[in-house]
Amino acid sequence: MCGIVGYIGTQQAVPLLLEGLGRLEHRGYDSAGVAVLGPGKEGRLRVAKRSGRVRDLAEQLPKRFAGKVGVGHTRWATHGPANDVNAHPHTDAGGAVAVVHNGIIDNAAALRAELAGAGVELVSDTDTEVLAHLIGRSDAETLEAKVAEALARIEGTYGLAVLHSAHPDRIVVARNGSPLIIGIGDHEMFVASDLAALVRYTTRVAHLDDGELATVTTAGFTTYRQDLSQVARIATDLEVDASAYDAGEHESFMRKEMLEQPEAAERVLRGRLDERFGTSHLGGLDMEARELRAIRRVKVLGCGSAYYVGQMGAGLVEELARIPADAEAASEFRYRNPIIEPDTLYVAVSQSGETIDTLLAVQEIRRKGGRVVGLVNVVGSAIARECDGGIYLHAGPEVAVASTKALTTMYLAFALLALQLGRVRDLSIADGRRLVAGLQRLPEQLGEVLALEPVLAELAAGLAEAESLFFVGRVRGYPVAREGAQKFKEISYRHAEAYQTSELKHGPLALIDASVPTVAIVPDDELTDRNVGALHEIAARGGPLVVLTHDAVDLGDLPAQGQVHRVDLPRNERELDPIVITIALQLLAYHAALALGHDIDKPRNLAKSVTVE
Ligand code: F6R
Fold this sequence. Notes:
By secondary structure, the chain is an alpha/beta fold. The protein is 34% helix and 22% strand. The longest helix has 22 residues, at 429-450.
């Protein structure tokens, strides 16, 4: 949430900051702002900020906003509404300090009261403003010491960048729980909360660890611990293609990323399937067969869609490896003082690798001696670094807030993990080979589902008219329904509720009538008859149905046209069908949102990468 960008070098900062902010808008888009230090020994600090999008800020920016040092921010409101005053950067009373901040200061109320008591006039509702005042009021000599002193008073999380007019040759940055990257250029340096903001200028980067600060000047960077003792951070060259961060000819990132799913699926599977032994190779797990065999339980942790795909993954592990497995929302896990068992394998799932709830769950497990592996997309992210091993997803950059291709690769990574766990236990070589063949067919089948877009678009336009919808499935299909409902609600803003099909008659059937459609997941599997029975119960009450199914499924004599629509999807192995069906649900959500005229990539109130609790 929220995006940070900073520049120090030989070029004018503002155009680069605005460009970077535009690329970070998926992280927060209720307001934006920049601060620059003007030329001269004691550079003048100038700030421009306003609610709305980065383009609104760019339009109102005064022409003469010169300076070769600057920081910028896109906000996702936590403290106080989205308005011009609450937008970042925040300044101290003397106007010498500018701070941009991601994260939450938990003791902000106490610090605000203390500052107010000392006669400081706080102008915004934000937690960040206290940081600007604390830095501004510090008597320490260096900017680094001022920032460290202020941070010592803070409880909470932060990724931040600070400018000071008395120290115009530097940006000081710090990290604790919110990402901060330093980009190294030629006589110019960048800072950002996300690679997307700097990848067009440099791919040579250094990551800060939690509790670290850095001084960034045109000549380079120096990193410190909070006691200002130096710590070495080595820059690495990332192999990234800057064009992957562009939507290209696509009308939205979400559409682009949905269409990229067959390739992303190929990438996550590449080099990891073993046809001969019907298993997978996962070097990054760093676990021997003996250790895999010793696992007695698998616990998956993730948030939002990563949690739902985690539930699909836990199902795969139980089914293929016969190890008890379940998934839990990482945001809840830590707060119930969970029992951490030495023979449980904990699996943290995250696209961004920065989701704070998942990160904190990983840290809690490791603190108590548990072993955690990560299924993570962003290389070098906090969760990836915190885990004992893992599987990188290789989905490529995901920009749209609604997760699509990352989710698909998460599912496939689970399939690889389950296969390997299964094959060192009871899974037969024949079943292993059957699943390997299924996985090899998958990328093409995902393309076949994407080719059904026109049919799904038409159905979605109808669904978009309903105020409220159900998404139902059973066993393997239930987490699929949950993910389908999640995607639908987050971008269409319609109330979409997932239920186990079997639970309908225990309550929710009361809501079914002609105005409440149900999207039903009815694969050709051992539960087909039961599922079809439930469809009849819905139809008998006048409920419209969209049935995602397979051509072999006989739906019986359900009412004809208008009321019931079936979409026959490509058939894989029954264990792997969930991901094929998930793609159809993405298309339904996407086209419903499109029909309703929503901004697909920036759904209201949401942001990519949730770095606050
Ligand atoms: C939904 C969505 C979110 C994320 C969740 C976890 O489409 O994108 O629910 O799945 O915020 O994010 P990561 O995977 O980055 O940990």
